[in-house]
């Protein structure tokens, strides 16, 4: 099992130095007294303790044992249930819950940081509470008061958990194709019938009841995405007092065999006249789901961050210990039979790549979640609109880019271990298997890329982008830099200007060649990711450099500046390739008919 | 399980159109009558039949069941043993074997093509005969006549198999650190004692006997790589007539739990005073291993090719069937509820990327193996030297680049499948797990990169590179191109000139900054890979375009030209990034001390 320690020092840096969180949250009455250094640090320490001591030891066990299903009853791996009980006792499920229903009412930033640590120590386990969050936020946003009273209270306390039931075997990215039916009953409820697949945490033994949020079609609903409604379907029906009554008509008919996240139950759920309750307006189910989907995308981005961090930590420990060969520029450790492999350039390059991915991803995810909170907490329309716009732009970037970086970091982790990276006991290959789901679920990288370029950028006529690039230019105007930071700021300026130019080019292509826009989408997404990272790394470098100039002796800040330099020197040049491909001719992409792709 | 059909049409193109194999092999008396179209086609068809019908159905079974060990006895998955019997009956083990010892004496090109198909249909199974080839070629090159008589005959017939025992738990890439001891006995044999790990096919139930080739140290041998000798250690000792006698002191104490290739037994082998026989001169074991290691690297490159091809075929079939969304430029299939996903630019881009990887890798591997054969068959010193030099240069490129492309292709395969890519029954995730070993074993990508840049390029003062770039320039001089091929040829010319310039820059850095050379190695390797692919794709485009101009109606050639255009337009721009990184400042790579990498 690779070593892991919660990166509290860096989390602290992002909270305080980068985001100035105390000042930020003090602006809003709901968060003012909650988001103090003292409280946040205490929560993070309790979470770290729990994750390192309870969840981390279950990570490899969960992978080996997986979940089992027999007659519809799903058993989670040894220790998962007990860990969940402890998690409930510690009060984590209620962290961000509405105070009216027993929640603690914390903003999402704190949950995001805690969920990074949860996922880092046990991805599969972390999905159970993760999915509950999705169900809670959907009911919170769209449920009636009665529904909130009935379902939200027990979800917030954690004695119940929740799921999101979207996918069907023929309908994944294209939810307009779903077939699950909802037929109205006399009593105002609905009978739900259909088969859902890929339902994470869809059935398990952790909680008394499971509240499914289900997409289905009303009779005579319009075809496609405009005919989908949203329903609450509990595993156990409730009696008039809200207590658990008879079993509802929803059964786990199978568990999927997957590449990773074995400890999470990925269920095929059969709904057979299951009793459901409409949530939100008829035929507006997909719109209601957007709240959840955006939250789920940020949650998935966090999973990418977790993989970057854990693969980094594992590889770093190994690279300091493992001896092989001598440094190319001369023996470094003459007392040992060989040098530790951290001296070798390709190994250092992989480790530093992982480091900039992990720390950059943390900065982006936490920065992004302040906008989730501002959109929620602010009463200033302009401020709220700005936050929502930033979220719309940055969510697909964070989701796709951070998960792809997680995949890359996991790969480097295995490479640093050499052949041992392929062996299960070292844990690096589990990270590589677990993280592979993250570029697939909640919309593949390719889907995010099309969402970003077509819906967000072109859909807003470029305005969403300008909102961010204005923020970056403002930062550049305020910071001229010194001999250390100026080279980074100047590279940031270049890449931002190029981002704007490339975007204008693409907008001009909309009228005459939409195919070229499609061809550019994935590279545009990567370019955007590296550009956003450049902004955050420049910001972090400026902050750290200021501390150094103020005379700090904390080596953390020296390392931060040096890591930022690595980003600008050895990672940002990747944009050269993406820029070229955004502008590349796409004729050859479309010239082959499907029949000409292969010849036997 | 993804669909797969042997790509005989493309193999045929590479053999005939690209390599002109009949004319090439007609030059040498040993291969003249063997390498005819008729014979080669017949062998490839028999191999395809066997692989598609016997090995492919065992691929998922092997992955699910894995190998089992009990009291040192290893059981392979259901059907593996029977398939091996059939393979022996068909005479495949003897294909390239020395005719004096019962072999068929074919050049390696034919074996390389067959092993592509073997690996494509069942990677784990294909490793058993693959390792035998390593043992055979080692004994063939360095064994005495008596050793050949005793061991080679039964290896060639296939009733025995072989292994290569190099790695120890603390010594992988750095074999100079191995500790296994060989103590001379009175009778001229040696007692071998030590533990070897990661021994593929180290113990199993496929064959009567297993011949281990083992690296060990003689008493008082010099430290490091110059004190390693090579031994033959049979699983069962032989009596004076060469028949199987008592069990030797080598036992499989455990099987590794791995990310993939579950059907292959990756053994921990304990040698406890096992009887061994010196092969080659004392303390020259590593030199003797180079023959094997180069062959093993080309074999691993083939595995990368196989992953590119199988992931491509699986994804292509799915992309034609799966319906989701409408094409960005308008509905393509109005009769269906959605368009097949092959219409979407990001999906097409992934499929064509896989296609250029698979076909380009095939071209490179087969081209490379003609040099293996020329080095072996030619009696012309100059021709032989040229072949050996090309091999020295191209082997690390092929090994590292083709396996990395295989990893990327497998990733695209999963992405095309969306969430279904993560589910075992579709088989795409198995390809992704299996292929991950290929960038690790036989020297990681990073090790190959250092071998290429430091040993081969700088070690030859750039001369090895010039040998290849002269060949490319010669090709460019002979082919001016037409309006279709000229843009590709001109891009090839640019990238080759840049390759030469970058190499000169790096050579100049050797005296003043070796660290910068190390920092550039991995990007130099990728740049080299894309440059070599540019050469081969240009050559294939020119050949196909000539056929078109000669009036062919075979759509294969039109598709080949179009695929080449895709390579030059949408893959080759990756060299921009690698060139920038080769030239990038590497200060930030070395500025952090190991202590400053992480803060808790």
TrEMBL record, chains A, B:
<dbReference type="InterPro" id="IPR006091">
    <property type="entry name" value="Acyl-CoA_Oxase/DH_mid-dom"/>
</dbReference>
<feature type="domain" description="Acyl-CoA dehydrogenase/oxidase N-terminal">
    <location>
        <begin position="41"/>
        <end position="158"/>
    </location>
</feature>
<dbReference type="Pfam" id="PF00441">
    <property type="entry name" value="Acyl-CoA_dh_1"/>
</dbReference>
<keyword id="KW-0274">FAD</keyword>
<dbReference type="InterPro" id="IPR052166">
    <property type="entry name" value="Diverse_Acyl-CoA_DH"/>
</dbReference>
<feature type="domain" description="Acetyl-CoA dehydrogenase-like C-terminal">
    <location>
        <begin position="469"/>
        <end position="592"/>
    </location>
</feature>
<feature type="domain" description="Acyl-CoA oxidase/dehydrogenase middle">
    <location>
        <begin position="164"/>
        <end position="273"/>
    </location>
</feature>
<dbReference type="InterPro" id="IPR009075">
    <property type="entry name" value="AcylCo_DH/oxidase_C"/>
</dbReference>
<comment type="similarity">
    <text>Belongs to the acyl-CoA dehydrogenase family.</text>
</comment>
<dbReference type="Pfam" id="PF12806">
    <property type="entry name" value="Acyl-CoA_dh_C"/>
</dbReference>
<feature type="domain" description="Acyl-CoA dehydrogenase/oxidase C-terminal">
    <location>
        <begin position="283"/>
        <end position="449"/>
    </location>
</feature>
<dbReference type="InterPro" id="IPR037069">
    <property type="entry name" value="AcylCoA_DH/ox_N_sf"/>
</dbReference>
<keyword id="KW-0560">Oxidoreductase</keyword>
<dbReference type="Pfam" id="PF02771">
    <property type="entry name" value="Acyl-CoA_dh_N"/>
</dbReference>
<dbReference type="InterPro" id="IPR009100">
    <property type="entry name" value="AcylCoA_DH/oxidase_NM_dom_sf"/>
</dbReference>
<dbReference type="Pfam" id="PF02770">
    <property type="entry name" value="Acyl-CoA_dh_M"/>
</dbReference>
<dbReference type="InterPro" id="IPR046373">
    <property type="entry name" value="Acyl-CoA_Oxase/DH_mid-dom_sf"/>
</dbReference>
<dbReference type="InterPro" id="IPR013786">
    <property type="entry name" value="AcylCoA_DH/ox_N"/>
</dbReference>
<dbReference type="InterPro" id="IPR036250">
    <property type="entry name" value="AcylCo_DH-like_C"/>
</dbReference>
<dbReference type="InterPro" id="IPR025878">
    <property type="entry name" value="Acyl-CoA_dh-like_C_dom"/>
</dbReference>
<keyword id="KW-0285">Flavoprotein</keyword>
<protein>
    <submittedName>
        <fullName>Acyl-CoA dehydrogenase C-terminal domain-containing protein</fullName>
    </submittedName>
</protein>
């Amino acid at each position: 099992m690779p070593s892991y320690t919660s990166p509290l020092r860096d989390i602290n840096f992002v909270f305080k130095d980068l985001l100035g969180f105390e000042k930020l949250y003090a602006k809003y009455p709901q968060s003012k007294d909650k988001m103090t250094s003292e409280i946040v640090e205490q929560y993070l320490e309790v979470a770290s303790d729990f994750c390192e001591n309870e969840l981390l030891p279950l990570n490899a066990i969960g992978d080996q044992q997986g979940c089992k299903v027999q007659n519809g009853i799903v058993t989670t791996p040894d220790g998962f249930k007990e860990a969940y009980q402890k998690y409930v006792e510690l009060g984590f499920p209620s962290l961000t819950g509405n105070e009216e229903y027993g929640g603690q009412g914390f903003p999402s930033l704190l949950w995001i940081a805690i969920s990074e640590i949860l996922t880092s120590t046990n991805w599969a386990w972390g999905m159970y509470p993760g999915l509950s969050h999705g169900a809670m936020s959907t009911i919170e946003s769209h449920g009636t008061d009665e529904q909130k009273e009935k379902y939200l209270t027990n979800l917030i306390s954690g004695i119940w958990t929740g799921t999101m039931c979207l996918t069907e075997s023929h309908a994944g990215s294209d939810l307009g194709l779903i077939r699950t039916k909802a037929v109205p009953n006399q009593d105002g409820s609905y009978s739900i019938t259909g088969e859902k697949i890929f339902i994470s945490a869809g059935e398990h033994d952790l909680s008394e009841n499971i509240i499914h949020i289900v997409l289905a079609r009303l009779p005579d609903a319009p075809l496609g995405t405009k005919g989908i409604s949203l329903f609450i379907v509990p595993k156990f029906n409730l009696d008039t007092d809200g207590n658990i009554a008879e079993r509802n008509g929803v059964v786990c008919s199978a568990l999927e065999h997957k590449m990773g996240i074995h400890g999470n139950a990925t269920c095929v759920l059969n709904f057979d006249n299951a009793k459901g309750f409409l949530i939100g307006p008829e035929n507006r189910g997909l719109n209601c789901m957007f709240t959840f989907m955006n939250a789920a995308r940020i949650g998935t981005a966090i999973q990418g961050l977790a993989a970057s961090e854990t693969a980094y930590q594992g590889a770093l420990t190994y690279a300091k210990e493992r001896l092989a060969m001598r440094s190319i520029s001369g023996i470094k450790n003459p007392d040992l039979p060989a040098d530790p492999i951290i001296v070798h350039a390709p190994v250092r390059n992989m480790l530093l790549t992982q480091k900039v991915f992990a720390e950059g991803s943390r900065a982006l995810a936490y920065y992004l979640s302040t906008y989730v909170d501002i959109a929620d907490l602010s009463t200033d329309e302009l401020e709220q609109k700005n936050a929502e716009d930033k979220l719309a732009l940055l969510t697909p970037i964070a989701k796709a880019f951070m998960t792809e970086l997680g995949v890359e970091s996991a790969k480097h982790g295995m490479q640093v271990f050499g052949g041992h990276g392929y062996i299960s006991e070292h844990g690096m290959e589990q990270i590589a298997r677990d993280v592979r789901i993250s570029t697939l679920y909640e919309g593949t990288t390719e889907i995010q890329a099309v969402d970003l370029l077509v819906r967000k950028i072109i859909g807003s006529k470029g305005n969403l982008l300008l909102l961010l690039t204005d923020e970056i230019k403002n930062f550049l105007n305020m910071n001229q830099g010194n001999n250390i930071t100026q080279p980074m700021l100047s590279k940031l300026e270049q890449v931002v200007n190029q981002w704007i130019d490339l975007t204008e080019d693409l907008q001009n292509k909309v009228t005459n060649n939409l195919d070229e826009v499609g061809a550019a989408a994935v590279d545009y997404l990567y370019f955007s990711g590296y550009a956003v990272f450049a902004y955050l790394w420049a910001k972090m470098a400026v902050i750290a450099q200021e501390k150094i100039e103020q005379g700090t002796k904390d080596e953390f800040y020296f390392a931060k500046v040096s890591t930022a330099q690595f980003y600008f020197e050895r990672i940002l040049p990747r944009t050269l390739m993406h820029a070229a491909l955004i502008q590349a001719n796409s004729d050859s992409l479309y010239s082959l008919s499907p029949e000409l792709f292969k010849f036997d």
